[in-house]
Amino acid sequence: MVYRWINIIQSRLLPAVCLLCGAPGEAPGRDLCAGCRRDLPLNAHACPRCAEPLPASAPAGTVCGRCRRLPPPFAAAFAPYRYDWPLDRLIVELKFRRRLAVARVLGTLFAEALAVRLAAGAPRPQALVPVPLHPKRLAARGYNQAAELARPVARMLGLPLLDAGRRVRDTAAQSALAFRERRRNVAGAFVLAQGVPHAHIALIDDVLTTGHTAGECARALQAGGVERVEVWTLARTPAPGTPGRTA
Ligand SMILES: [Zn+2]
Ligand SMILES: [Zn+2]
Question: Ligand 2 centroid vs 72 CA: distance in angstroms?
Fold first, then answer.
């Protein structure tokens, strides 16, 4: 509630200022200028199952080799941006600093991309579920960045937001582990805290990297009776050894 009021007061009283370069914002309440928005790295050509960038030569809608060999537990994944400069800078700030203004900008960009996707005929989920943090980490950070992004998305798309997941193990941060260790780290880390009376759910997170965290959440939702789980993240980090990976 306090968050919402601070947000409303900030957006009404303070002129919008670009969080990346300090120029005036593109629109009232949007703290990003048009030039910096155009610099954000789009992920327009991606695998529909895991959102990983596809080689330019692959036809649109191609399921990548990895998903064909080992389909992920979720039915589809969508990430409108690649985790690359300058978006990576904003996502770091979302996690560690300046949460309010950054969540408002990123949540709005995310919602706009999702609205385009739904208008183009993608199936519409019945509710959104943010990927949960373990209560210990939530207490330390004070907020869950996935929920901060999910809130404007839910509002703009008119979808209910369910805080349905619980992280039952305080796993090591995925970013601190080698790619091959990440799957074991999150196995069985999530349960449902409440019944989810919906057949189609979209999980919301900031970044999709190996997909193991989202995959474990999807398994928990499916065990609770959800038939179709999609993963919607603002950004995608290409897995190692793929053409789109730059780092
Ligand atoms: Zn700017
Ligand atoms: Zn894929």
Answer: 8
Q: With DSSP H G I counted as helix, E B as strand and the rest as coil, what are the percentages for the chain, rounded to 5?
A: 40, 15, 45
Task: State the ligand closest to the CA atom of 61.
Answer: 2
Average pLDDT of span 162-169 = 78
Rounded-to-integer distance, Cα 157 and Cα 136, Å: 31
pLDDT of residue 172: 65
Residue 13 has a pLDDT of: 62
> What whole-number distance in Å separates Cα of residue 60 and Cα of residue 39?
23
What is the location of CATH 3.40.50 in the chain?
42-236
Ligand positioned closest to the Cα atom of 231? 2
pLDDT in tens, 166-215: 777 776 666 666 766 766 677 777 778 778 888 999 999 999 998 888 99
Tokens of residue 95, six digits: 């996690």
For residue 245, pLDDT beyond 50: no
Cα dist from 91 to 82, 101, 206, whole Å = 11, 12, 7
Angle between helices 179-186 and 212-223 in degrees, nearest 10: 20
Distance 42 CA to ligand 1 centre (A): 17
**What separation in Å is there between the alpha carbon of 33 and the centre of ligand 1?**
4
**CATH class for domain 42-236?**
alpha beta
Around ion ligand 1, residues with a beta carbon closer than 5 Å are: 18, 20-21, 23, 33, 36
Among all ligands shown, which has an atom nearest to the Cα of 86? 1
